[in-house]
Amino acid sequence: MSLELGSKLSPYEIRSQLSHSILFRVLAIICLMLSVPLGILGQQDLTRYVDPFIGTGGHGHTYPGATMPFGMVQLSPDTRLTGWDGCSGYHYSDYVIYGFSHTHLSGTGISDYGDILLMPTVGEVKLANQDYASGFSHHSEHARAGYYSVRLYNAVLVELTATRRAGIHRYTYPPDAKANIVLDLTHRDRVLDSYLRITGGTTFVGWRRSRAWAKDQIVYFAGELSRPFSGWGISPDGGAAQPIQEARGTNVKAFFSFDPSSEPVLVKIGISAVSIAGASRNLAAEIPQWDFSRVREDADIAWQKELNKIQVTGGTDAQLKTFYTALYHSMLAPNLFMDVDGQYRGRDFQTHTASGFENYTVFSLWDTFRAAHPLYMIIDQKRTRDFINTFLAQYQQGGRLPVWELAANETDTMIGYHAASVIADAAAKGIDGFDLNLAFEAMKHSAELDRDGLQAYKSKGYIELEDEKESVSKTLEYAYDDWCIAQMAKAMNEKEDYNYFMM
To answer: Over 50: is that where the pLDDT of 397 sits?
Structure first.
């Protein structure tokens, strides 16, 4: 279909024009080649092909723990405190577990997260991580989509599962042992500030503000225990624990102790980036009872639904495992970043309420614009709308589209302004539900900033080594993103913008 430049078109007509692009046709053909419509075959048991341990060795930087598709909680074991191969918090070559924290990154080349770590112990309480850590064997470790378990060398059986905004632990101790749970708010990255308050015989709340890849990250939490603790202590400064109700500082740790029993101890933790009240509401809404098996079953159902969006026929079990584990990994991020009431922490670090979309975080756009986002546009158009509306909210709150956003922080990792290509691709596929005019404004604005070599690129059409590091890569990627903006301009009959970005 040809397009006569000059007259204005409606958003519907714009998308109609873009939907006839070569890119759309190619991706549609790929979709037909790779997948079989769900209605033809019916839902299959596909989580059995997912192996969360794939990628946890070598330089894979993945984690094996429990999470929901694109969930806010990633409840997983932490085996490594530092180093490049500890980016996810877990490495298959390790033999010690320090605990189980509620946020993790998958596949990144820089480390962050690892917030709100819990560790079950027996006997005398010790708060130094090298003392409360326990050895483990992969022979006693099990993981599948939405569930993880391990029997530690301290004889505690740990089981983990999660909802979108909360996690639940089940600890089965030896029946004659004094049982403890250590809560470590100092774990992993640099703590800027933290707070813990015991609010009852089974409940506690707090928050943790830290600095790593994200320069100012905060996680609020609300926790509940299935059994009243017989003793507790808080260490406000890394020293001896005291039976106090609350503490604030950069080195807060605590423990809860339980009388010997054959009954497991369950712990529920809700998290929020907005407030303690938000974390409490998230927990109450998503895990109102103590039914660990039900939460695990719901997680499996959610993963079955997502994985069944692509059904593969033929192939060996090994090939199916490779395919569905890769599909599973593609659904670990971006992550939901919004409470059940719609509140979220924006790019301006203020609290906002989403209207008509779910807010997300962890936009690794240099990594994902080529293949992951085009895949989402085929199999998950609803989330694609949410992602783009999140982009636009970040533009309005932070002054530009995301480059590599993490927990409301722009890390500026990698190059390009590839949110522009994601938006153009979505428009080309006819995905609506976002403001096209605002999106076009945001795309142009991000391309016109004088940063990262853009000033030289705009004036000369390329970047020299003397202008900016990574000059060749930046020239190529800016050129591609500008081409995407030009296609939007063409479809919107913005002739001047089309000519400018095609230069």
So the answer is: yes
